[in-house]
Amino acid sequence: MTAAMPSSLPVLILHTGDPDDTLKSQFGGYADQLAQAAGLTPDTMEIVAVHEGRQPRAPASYRAALITGSPAMVTDLEPWSEDTAAWLRAAAAAGLPMFGVCYGHQLLAHALGGKVGYNPAGREVGTQTVELLPPAAGDRLLAGLPSTFPAQMLHAQTVLQPPPGAAVLARSDLDGHQMIRIGRNVFSTQFHPEFGPEFVRAHLERFGRRYAAENLDVPGLSANVRATPVAGGLLRRFLEVYA
């Protein structure tokens, strides 16, 4: 077990991409949304835009790391993404608590020996139901949560094979690896704890034609969008329990 991280250290947000300019102007970038959901303020965090080529400091400089979603694809093996994967491997080896979301979920899996690719079940968007699995029982992060809860989804790629020794904590109808724990204090979710229903509705409206061309029921998905308080509380819980 690693020693407790000094609380004076900042939380690192590894910024891996943003929504398009229209959605970003309305709702903020992905790092901003993640910071807000985690309850972080400018003096308690450090945002590093790795997708723009910037690099974080050594893992010991932070008390935890959060990894955002991105429009990029992990399988493209972009140099900035592979550099970030190498940093994540070093951080995991150093015992840094980490929580990845969507792209961050996939990048952690890729970095630590898992397999990422397009979801054979297709794109998963809108508010969907997440079901906790038996390995979630007794996990401090998930203690007291209901066995099923709604969560916001927005992904085409997924974790096809978790890293060796990882515990799969949750699933959905289209994705068997919705939440993963690696070791003691590295967590990731394919779903988005940071997204509010307004953002998801706006996204569906903006990209409705594209999704309709994939035979998705966009009006039905939009009508089903709702608040996700259980999923939305996970980032704060993670920092309270592990950082």
Question: Would you write up a description of this structure?
Answer:
The chain has 9 helices and 11 strands. Strand 9 (167-172) and strand 10 (175-182) form a beta hairpin. The protein has helices at 21-27, 30-38, 79-93, 103-111, 197-206, 208-213, 218-224, 229-232, 234-242; strands at 11-15, 45-49, 64-67, 98-101, 115-118, 124-132, 148-155, 157-161, 167-172, 175-182, 186-189. The model is unreliable at 1-6 (pLDDT under 50). The strands form 2 sheets. A 9-stranded mixed sheet has the order 2-1-3-4-11-10-9-6-7, with helices on both faces. A two-stranded antiparallel ribbon has the order 5-8. 31% of the residues lie in helices and 26% in strands. The longest helix has 15 residues, at 79-93. By secondary structure, the chain is an alpha/beta fold.
Question: In a nutshell, what does this entry contain?
Answer:
By secondary structure, the protein is α/β, with parallel strands linked by helices. Helices cover 31% and strands 26% of the residues. It is globular.
**How many extended strands?**
11
Flag low-confidence runs.
1-6
What is the H/E order? EHHEEHEHEEEEEEEHHHHH
Shape: globular
Mean pLDDT: 96
Discrete helix count: 9
Record the strand order, biggest sheet: 2-1-3-4-11-10-9-6-7
Cα gyration radius (Å) = 17 Å
Q: Characteristics of this structure?
A:
243 residues, disordered N terminus, 9 helices, two-stranded antiparallel ribbon, 26% strand, 11 strands, single chain, 31% helix, alpha/beta
